Amino acid sequence: MFIIHCPFCGEREQSEFKSGGEAHIVRPRQPTELSDDEWAEYLFMRKNIKGIQFERWNHAHGCRKWFNMVRDTSNDEIKAVYKMGEKPPIK
Amino acid sequence: MTKNLRVKTGKAIDETYRISFKFNGTTYYGFKGDTLSSALLANDVHLVGRSFKYHRPRGIMTAGSEEPNAIVQLHDNSSRTEPNVRATEVEIYEGLEASSQNCWPSVKFDIGGINNFLSPLLPAGFYYKTFMWPASFWEKYEYFIRRSAGLGKSPKEKDPDVYEHKYIHCDVLVIGSGISGIMSAKTAAKNGFKTLLVEEKPNLGGSTIYQNSDFFKINNQNSSSWLEKELNEIKKLGNLEIKTRTSVAAFHGYNFLLARENFTDHLPIEQRSNKTRQKLLKIRAKKVITATGSIERPMIFDNNDRPGILLSSAIKKYADFFGVASGEENILFTNNDSAYETAISLIQKGIKIKAIIDNREYVDSKLHYEVEKNNIKIFKGYTITDTFGYKRINKISIKQLSKDGQKVVGSKINLSCDCLGVSGGWTPAVHLFTQSGGKLKFREEDQVFIPNIYPSDQLSVGSCNGDFTLEEILKNTSKSLKEFLNIENTEYENLEILSSFNKSKRNIWLLPSDKVFGKTKSFVDYQNDATAKDIKLALREGFRSIEHVKRYTTTGMGTDQGKLGNMHALGIISETAGAKMGELGTTTFRPPYTPLTFGTIVGRNVGEFFDIFRKTPIHNWHVKNKAEFENVGQWKRAWYYPKKNENMHQAVQRESKAARESAGILDASTLGKIDIQGTDASEFLNRVYTNAWSKLAIGKCRYGLMLNEDGMVYDDGVTTRLDENHYIMTTTTGGAANVMAKLEDYLQTEWPELDVYLTSVTDHFATVSICGPSSKKIVSEVIPDLNFSDESFPHMSFKNAKIGKINCRVMRISFTGEHSYEINVQANYGKSVWEKCMEVGKDYNITPYGTETMHLLRAEKGFIIVGQDTDATMTPIDLQMDWIVSKKKYDFIGKRSLYRSDTIKEDRKQLVGLITDNPNEILEEGAQIVADINKSPIEMLGHVTSSYYSPNLKKSIALGVVRGGKNMMGQKLIVPMEKKNINVTVADPVFLDKENKRLNA
Question: Residue B101 in contact with residue B151, Cβ under 8 Å?
């Protein structure tokens, strides 16, 4: 059970949040221009990294805001959180 | 007459308070402060159970939660019965009844004991190997295997006790109240940390509290008296909370821990009512100090499992703490100094020690000289090769160890005894540390795994950190605390310490024997009967990973989770496979550390609180009018309203007829409602629904279908344009929360440029839906000020109105195919509006109907229910709903997926109507649909998704999905059932009023 620092509310229990999978996958602006393969890449392909992973979280039972998190999936250490649209603070 | 083995007063015992209890039907006596095991030993009862596989007689082995053998059933055949309880942890009380498990007909004569003689036929993996074929027989084998391997009986009656959950937040949590735990708690509390100290036993002080020999002194007091003083001091500290009988079950990441606090298990049954039995504590600590101590290791030699063989530390505790002699003729067997500590305690209590067998050839410690002084024979460099006695040990054989410790040499010596204490050194209890994600390292010199890398703000102190001598414990704990708590000093820095424990040890994981290896039974895991031979067999058969060997041999898989034997299993693997211990690693320690009751886990979430449910504002009316309810998501929805003796079918037939012939009324309050506002609201709807929204006029309603990005139908519902930049969207009952979350997700992450605001208003409105030919007359009377003429108020439109002073939104929309209105009012007026409609509708045979009738009515019209007629594999094209998919819109969620190579296939499953040849035959929902029953295997074409008997059409109707069904109109198919094949014809899914005449009637 993590303690997550919501960029809008501060530290809260993990039970208030919902995980939303890999971050920084942008929905194509012109889907009709894409081939089946290119669309499938957006739709289905995820990295599922062991180690530093960029992921989306939603403070579902709080402010309802989406934000991004950098988490080491091997030991669950949260390296950083940042708002949607912001650049990741670490690489 | 049983023997009385009570010696000089034990520290924990109140000899003025006698307690009677029953074990296996016999009445015994003990004293207040006794555990079940100490009281049994005082009565000379060692045989308490049978082992799991071979049904070998087993006795009490330990004095703590690591006990593998003495597991008992409490209060058999009562509502409070509990299986798998460790006798070493049960505090006795007047009226306690306990019995042995895993034996029949009795522990003294157990038929399963025959397995012991059949053991050559029962090697590791026996069950896997033997009962593999024929595979279909497994179910039959399993029944008998499970019966013969019973681990107690679960209660058959409702649990009469109450359990609770509690959240605790603290600065410092200290787990364990041995000497290092007490030092930690006191230091933390005194330095201003809000501290919680938890201890699994009923009393504080760990093993030091009964360490009252002259060989262990702090500031010239024996360590017991010194600690006693500390205990008195910490009880006065303001910001320290102490919880005894509280066992930490789990240590999760980010210092989140679960503990069980026990309140009534030590009380006589009649004193337990109106009290909470156990509490599950959910602890979030800023810092955690683990002081969980260590567990003494047994030793692995032939027949090392007989009743009367105990850990040497347990014998010491029974003598010092409970005042009980575990035997009258004791022998100790050791590879380190611990057995000498035990010996000194026994000498003090006047308990006879016959001999000490020590693996070590040279012993040079004060403890050893003290024992020698008392004329106790010490066999140095010897090992036990065998033991004798079926229900109680009565003799051992010993031989000299070779220099390398791999063989035994010389001649055999036999020694009689009635109790054997073994001491194989100590294993730090690192279970909680590793649960939290901590990484261990292996210390070669004394062969222990100790904490290495901490995953959170935590510290291990005392013997769980590998500090075994009094001096190490005091000095290292003090030093670590300073750093961990970031404080200048502790009060333990200048203590004068006398510690006589010598750390020398001769570690041999599997002791040699004079027998052929295969002929010995050297138990590694006592509870699961895994022997050294089994482990070697697993290695011979190619298993290398410790995790695989564990599962193949079941080592460490009992209720004790291998607290005693896991290290030996590792050691034997390491020696046999030639791998280093540190490289092998340990098996994963998983929660709970000791078993939890189901009651503790569920707490107050029982009965109607098991899962929360939501009620509509009209709920009480449904209850009063005897509705049956259906769970839809978290909602309780009225299912049907049986009159007199009607069954569901009869009630639904009556309700459906009334809805089409006069008037029906439905509580639709559970539908999800999302208020959408902003200058880009229309554009937003264009992007989330498949159809076009820009041209929807104010005051009009439109049905929309929402897809996932993969093109599959996600939700549907009617959305109404209330104003230029204001819509109200309805969603399915079950999908409301997910739709809201999904829309928020797109708004915040993909389209932050849109000026749109979403608010969930599901609970804010009550919705009364009235349908049928008389619906217009009824709503006209309920809302006389509103013009309900078709010209003014056509189908799919909306008006604001008032019922008296109550504002309401009226929509003319229909899910039944009938002329129909929905009245939305502020939730707290819902019931009165409903009642008003019922009152007015009396003259028109207004009939309340539930979800079942609603489903039937919409099926007659071929309207889908998302989630019933669809699953996550249906596109709108599959549903034959091409009409709702805009060809003009450039993009909407899921559009691109509708022409992926897979979604454009002709032979996808498609929604069709199904008519049975026999109009009275009702199909079963979920039944398979096939074309050819002679082909083998039969090709499945699809399945029935909805099926009803339609009272309005007077025939059976059904919806189903069929591969390529769109092009199969009129084709005959078969629904094969267990006893017959039902012939069906593929039909249009709209069965009634294809021209929509009724909507406008």
Answer: yes
Residues A15-18: contacts with CB under 8 Å, at least 24 apart: A15/A61, A16/A59, A16/A60, A16/A61, A16/A62, A17/A57, A17/A58, A17/A59, A17/A60, A17/A61, A17/A62, A18/A57, A18/A58, A18/A60, A18/B741
Closest-CA residue to B41 (of B328, B355, B343): B328
* Contacts B435 to A, Cβ<8 Å: none
pLDDT averaged over every residue in chain B: 93
Out of 3.30.2270.10, 1.10.10.10, 3.30.360.10, 3.40.1000.20, select the CATH number for domain A3-83.
Answer: 3.30.2270.10
pLDDT band at B316 (very low <50, low <70, confident <90, very high): very high
Q: Show the tokens assigned to B923.
A: 């199909």
Q: Please say if the pLDDT value at position B129 is more than 70.
A: no
% of chain B surpassing 70 pLDDT: 95
Interface contact flag, B709 A27, Cβ < 8 Å:
yes
| DSSP for B157-178, written as a single string | SPP--EEEEEEEEEEEEEE--S
**B896 vs A32, A60, A85: nearest CB:** A32
Count contacts between A and B (CB, < 8 Å): 52
Angle between helices B775-782 and B830-841 (to 10 degrees): 120
**ipTM greater than 0.95, yes or no?**
yes
d(CA A18, CA B401): 62
pLDDT tens digits, B612-621: 899 999 999 9
> Nearest CA to CA, how far is A43 from chain B (Å)?
7
Q: Domain-by-domain residue ranges, chain A?
A: 3-83
- Closest by Cα among B383, B478, B573 to B183: B478
DSSP output for B432-487: HHHHTT-EEEEETTTTEEEEEE-SSSEEE-GGGGT--SHHHHHHHHHHHHHHHHT-
The pLDDT value recorded for residue B1 is 43
Q: Which residue from B107, B436, B115, B69 is spatially nearest to B283, judged by alpha carbons?
A: B436
Which of B594 and B703 is assigned the larger pLDDT? Answer: B703
> pLDDT per residue over B602-657, tens digit each?
999 998 898 889 999 999 999 999 999 999 999 999 999 999 999 999 999 999 99
Q: Helices B851-860 and B648-661, interaxial angle, to 10°? A: 60
Contact B254 A3 (CB under 8 A): yes
Cβ contacts of B897 on chain A, cutoff 8 Å: 39, 43
DSSP string for residues in B552-615: HHTTT-STTTTTTTHHHHHHHHHHHHT--HHHH--PPP-S-SS---HHHHHTT--GGGSS--B-
Q: Quick one: CA torsion of B63, B67, B73, B74, rounded to 10 degrees?
A: 30
* Separation in Å, CA of A5 to nearest CA in chain B: 13
Asked if A66 lies within 8 A of B252 by C-beta distance, the reply is no
Residue A4 has pLDDT above 80, yes or no: yes
B251 pairs with which residues across the strands? B257
Strand partners, B760: B674
CA A57 to the chain's CA centroid: 5
Pairing of strands B523-525, B726-731: unpaired
Place of tokens 């050791």: B334
Give which of B37, B81, B78 is closest to B61, Cα–Cα: B37
Tokens of B870: 């669809």
Give percent of chain A with pLDDT exceeding 70: 100
Confidence of residue B193 (pLDDT cuts 50, 70, 90): very high
Mean pLDDT of B810-832: 97
- Under the banding of pLDDT at 50, 70 and 90, the label for residue B143 is low
Domains and CATH numbers, chain B: 1-158 (3.10.20.440), 162-294+428-499 (3.50.50.60), 305-424 (3.50.50.60), 667-840 (3.30.1360.120), 905-1000 (2.40.30.110)
